[in-house]
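Chapter summary example.
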Amino acid sequence: MPLWTCEQCGAQFPDSAVPPVACPVCEDERQYVNWKGQTWLTSEELAKRHKLVWRDDLGIPGIGLEPGFAIGQRALLVPEADGCVMWDCVPLVTPEGVDYVRSLGGLKAIAVSHPHYYGAVADWSEAFGGVPVYLHGDDREFVTRPHPAIVPWTGDNHRISDGITLVRTAGHFAGGTILHWRAGAGGQGALLTGDVAMVAMDRRSVSFMYSYPNYIPLNAAAVQRIARAVAPLTFDRIYGAWWGRNIAGDANAAFEASVRRYLAAIAD
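The structure predicted for these 268 residues follows.
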């Protein structure tokens, strides 16, 4: 029986003879059901229509789909001596993509910022021997394909290695997470934020939303909580959720200024 992928958000569902009745990720108010209705692709159909591509994104290898699919994110492969940590995920796995990741040293773990980017985490884990998939437990209701490799971590911090720590910020989702890479930016530190803190088009600032497609902003308390979670971290660079949406330098100051600007904009 085929595995099913939601055509709107890219979430993968367990194998079944017929597609699911609905996608809980799309029915949530932060996302939306496709205007033409809920539609599904099998893994085979997805691989026929799209391919995986990879390239450098400001010093980190990235992997994404062409043509763009669902939300259009790319995954980043944070390198360490014993393998890469895949940050966020894409909805497709191919033999060529697996070979590319192996050429970088393979995967030792997968971590995802929030449910919009869960994608094919189970397939990627299985391709590398069942490596752990770190998803914050506060978002467990949005796991559409349960799998033994999923580690529903709890609390506000989870250390994957001496150099990589997951930090729960909440905000966009209750379990909204960023990744701090101590060795990033030439040793000055980097944050990988997905769209928990969205890198703006000027690539000099970030912003915050509860829902991007439905234009629901975050309130002041939620943004202040994100700022408190980020405050202890040392970083000079921020990587966003899409190709090229990064702040290349002086990102700590840019983040702090962005928080002040956002709070001023929503103040009474």
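To summarize the output: The first strand starts at residue 4 and ends at 6.
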